[in-house]
Structure formats: C-alpha cells, structure tokens
Amino acid sequence: MRRLALATLDANWEHDHTVPSRTLYPHQWSWDSAFIAVGLVHARPDRAWRELRTLFAAQWADGRVPHIVFNPALRAGAYFPGPEFWDSARADGAPAAATSGIVQPPVHAPAAWLVHRRAPSEASVAALRWLYPRLVAQQRYLTERRDAGGGGLAAIVHPWESGLDNSPAWDAPLAAVPADEAVMRAYRRHDTAHADAAHRPTDLDYARYVALVTAYRAGRYQDEALLGRHPFLVECPLVNAALGVSEQALARIATVVGADPGPHRDRAARITQALVERLFDPVTGTFRPRDVRADRLVPARTVLGLMPLILPDLPPAQVRAVLAEACSPRFGLAARMDRPLPTHDRTAPDFEPLRYWRGPSWLNTSWLLWRGLRGHRRADLAAGLRESMLDLVDAAGCHEYFHPDTGAGLGSPAFSWTAALVLDALAEG
C-alpha cells in the first residue's frame, strides 16, 4: 500500500503542486493540498511544504484561499468550470494567478502543524514563519467576512465550499435556488466524461451550482454587499469545526514562530461554543448545518454531523452524543467494522451508495473522524476505523471514494488524498 500510495502521488505531481486526479481534477484544489501535504511529509517533506506554499501564493488580499488554483499550461476549456467561467481577475484583491472565487474547509493550519511535527527542521520553521500570517488572514476572512448569521460562525455561499459538494445536507437550502436544467446547455460538463453520470451530481444540481457562482461573480465575490441577499448561506459543521481546530493549531505554530498563542486559544473556545449553541440538535443528538436564510437546521443526518469530534475542547455531552450517532446503524462505527463509514445515514430513504457524497465512503472524512477519536481517547473505535480505511485501499487501490457496502472503488482510480491519507494512517498505526 505504501508503494502504491507513493507512486500515485508521484504520478500526480505537477511541477509545484499535486493534482487530485489527472482525469477528473487537473488543477490544484485547496483542501486536497492540505491532506496531500499530511501524507507527503512521510516521504517527500520538501514537496509537502511546496504544496502549501504554492496554494497560499494564490491567496486573495482579503485572506480567502481559493478552492481552485488553475494551471495556466492547460488549454482553455479543458475543465469546467474553468478560469474563464470564474473570471476572478476582475474582482478586487484577486491574485495574479487564475483562481476560483470560493473557498474550502480551512484544514491547512492543522496540516502545516502536522508536517512540521513529523519532520521538524530549520526549513520547516522557516516555512511556518512564511505561512503563519497567511493562515491568520485565512481565519480572519472566514470568521469576520463570512459571519452571515451573526453568531460567530462562518457561512458557506456554495455547496462546493463544504468540500462535500453533493451531500444531502444541501438539498433543502438548494431547493430555494432558482435554476433551470436548460442553463447547462450553454456549458459542457467534463466530470461525466470521466465518471459514470449516475455517480455524479444531476444536471439540475449543476444548474443550481452554476446559478450560485453566477450570483457571487456578479458581485465580484465581495461578501459585504452579497451576504444579505445571496440565495445560499449555510453554517456547515465541518467548516466551522475546522475553524476551531485551526485556531488550536495556530496556537502551537505561534509558539514556534514567536507569536502570542493566547488569542488563538481564546478564539478556538469561542468557535467551539458557537458551534454547540447554533448547530447541535439536542433532539437528535447530532450536529446539523444551519440554513442562515431560513434560520433553521437542515434535516439530513450526514457525516458532517460527526465532524465536530475533531475539536479537542468539544464538551463531554456533545462528545457522547456524536459517538452515539457514529456508532448507530446510520454510520456503523465500531471497534470491528463490517462496512466502511458512509457519508450519509445508510438507513435514510435517500441514501445512494453510488452517487457522489450521498452515501459512498471517502477516506478524508474517515481520516478526520479517526483523528477526532484519537484526540478523545477512543483508541478502540479509532483502531476499527483505521483498519476499515486500510482495508478499502488494500482491496481496491487509491480510489477517489468507495462503495459503502462492498468497498468497491469508485470515481478516479488514482486519487491523491486517498494515497496521502493512507500513508498517514500507515505511519500512525
């Protein structure tokens, strides 16, 4: 598995970053690069730092880290939605590089800390010094400019910002987004040329995705003028749990670079408190996204509800509730798992074992939960989840995602974050 993972990462290396997949995703993706750096440090630490530096070199002036940094060497139209669709160059504060205008979960500070901790050196300290102010700016952008609900949490303006693009968690908020499948006739989707259309978002979903980007782009990606009227504003448990964990990581990084860790610890505590107050549902005992426009929690029970377990200071009552949800038949976490962790409640009527994020198992969400379990001293459950993750790759290879019942590989057959995170799981066994 280690040889396969390294070969996958080497094959996907593109001069200064790693592409998630040579077929489906030929550019640099934000949270992919964070996960990739976590794996690369075990074999290619110089590349791990270069991965993060390349991404943050394309940071916007307001602090946002774009979810895609486009490779200028690829021909126009080679990927949709490409740089011509995003048209970020006309936005104030956009970088020289062509990028998208939206973000992804801020998992980069914890990734940077893990890379340093696993391969400490003068070079890694220098890399942290360069990254630290940029990571702080990323946090400031999300906590200040994206607090659409006024409760201390960041709102996402597009399902793609959650990382779980097509999750059932977005069905209710997306239903309010006006769109017509006919809009897709003006564009050519590339994902369905490389993957089974039955496994991908529908054309109606994509029409709504396009409508949301069009609305955000029309305001030149400026949040202050847009947040009051944007059709999709949702507080995501994963994005905000990552915000809290990032402040914890920044406190550790601050001690290395000579900054004050105290404010980071204070902000981590405030984010955790806001997450519990705004997104925890005591009736069902799980965390749910909040639709800011409708001011209500969304009904779907997805793996997003388990992600706050990555917070080291999550209160004991919520830890117990999340563990009960994870170990229920909905997700099947156990010290010995007979099936991999799904991304949606497997008992729900809309559970789809083949469609993107609507049921299949992904290594990144399993890896995040695995780290959360270890942090909360559940070594038994962590060991069961790790074994399940490794079994998937051992049997099917470094696929993008996996069937939640059979473990068959789905999506891209040579996916970078799967390779990277299996390297980390192997090293931490």
UniProtKB/TrEMBL annotation:
Gene3D superfamilies: 1.50.10.10
Keyword Hydrolase: yes
Record domain Mannosylglycerate hydrolase MGH1-like glycoside hydrolase: where: 25-418
InterPro entries: 6-hairpin_glycosidase_sf (IPR008928), 6hp_glycosidase-like_sf (IPR012341), Glycoside_hydrolase_63 (IPR004888), MGH1-like_GH (IPR054491)
Protein biosynthesis keyword on record: no
Keywords: Glycosidase, Hydrolase
Residues in the signal sequence: none
Protein family per UniProt: Belongs to the glycosyl hydrolase 63 family.
Protein name: Mannosylglycerate hydrolase MGH1-like glycoside hydrolase domain-containing protein
Taxon lineage: Bacteria, Bacillati, Actinomycetota, Actinomycetes, Micromonosporales
